[in-house]
Amino acid sequence: MTHPPIWKQAMANLMVRLRRKHPATPEALEALHRSEEACFNDSSYVYGRGEDGMALVMRLSIRTDAPSEVWMSVRVPGRPIARVPVQNHPQEEGWRAGGLTWTPVEPGRTLQLRYEGPLVSEEGEQEALIALTFEGEGPLIDFSDGVDPRVTARAIAARPWSRCFFDQLGEIRTVHYEQVGRLHGTVQLGDEVHELDLRSVRDHSFGRRQWQTWRQHLWFSGVREDGVAFTAACIRYDFLGPLTAGFVIDGTPKPVSAVTAFDALGPPGVIPPRFTFEITCTDGSHHVVEVEVDGVFEFDMDDGAYCIHEAIARSTVDGIPAVGICEFGWNPSHG
After folding, report:
1. What does 245-280 look like in DSSP terms, one character per residue?
2. In the prediction, which pLDDT does 253 show?
3. Residue 190 pLDDT
4. Which of 36, 152, 208, 210 is deepest in the core (most CB within 10 A)?
5. C-alpha–C-alpha distance, residues 119 and 129, integer Å
6. Is 124 helix (H, G, I), strand (E, B) or coil?
């Protein structure tokens, strides 16, 4: 393997340290971010899972120069997954599109989420009314604090540099933060009403995003029954990667420096029914995650430019039971 020149590695280290700063207060982070920049995206996501098998995922992405992306999928125990029939919707005012409304009530603490409209499943189409409240049970964790800068700098230094390459790097400067909590409220499908009280993980990101430049990614996030939260992610772009990020929150958040390689989990497009992956943190600690897949939420981004499958996971982290979501994504043009 050819190593980059020392000067190039030094410059890459400097670029990573001088990465774009962003607002750090909850009020600033929790605002809806808009920009005239091409491919700008403000994406909000929440996932909830119950011990009885209830699972739900919602996402609302407001985009500068493309329709809004709406995810609304729910699995009621004993019933097939019901999902929003159309993913892309025209822009609407504020945090609203396709029947989904996202309302921050107390920045960094409370969100109100509402969906009103049709959901489709193997049983046909039903009208749905979903009213939920997310209550944060931990701090907002900025992903920039969960990135080992040495990994990013090595990846940048290893690539040929050009004006086009440096422009593409704008995509890795997206602001991303996460929070664990509880999700409670009601899901009404037709005449049936279901009360929810779920363990939950949510995130909010904003910046430039182009699905066609994503090649493959893995993201696993959740919380153990003892309250320890974890996130591990790995992404490969057409122009860079793989890059790793994440954290384990057991008191002070510990950044992730390495996760199991993509190829060890299986080929793109295949969600293994059971798998193991490992997380290494920057302090040298090591964590083993055992996952059993218990259903999958499926999404096609921009008419199939990128595919995302969200595995509803039963898991243990270091032998302790946990609930969470394990998201696999891949670009079909790469296999």
Report:
1. EEEEEESEEEEEEEE--HHHH-STT---SEEEEEEE
2. 81
3. 92
4. 152
5. 10
6. strand
Long-range CB pairs of 265-270, under 8 A, 24+ apart, other chains included: 265/218, 267/335, 268/216, 268/330, 268/331, 268/334, 268/335, 269/307, 269/330, 269/332, 269/335
Residue 81 has pLDDT above 80, yes or no: yes
What does pTM read for this prediction?
A: 0.91
Q: Which amino acid is at 193?
A: V
Which residues, including other chains, have CB under 8 Å from residue 248's CB and lie 6 or more apart?
228, 229, 230, 254, 256, 279, 281, 285, 287
Of the listed ranges 127-131, 132-136, 269-273, 304-308, the one predicted with least confidence = 269-273
Cα 57 to Cα 85, 276, 312, 327: the distances in Å are: 14, 23, 10, 12
Looking up tokens 């996501």 gives 45
Phi, psi of 156 (to 5 degrees): -65, -45
Please, how many CA atoms are within 13 Å of residue 172, restricted to the half-sphere of its CB?
A: 26
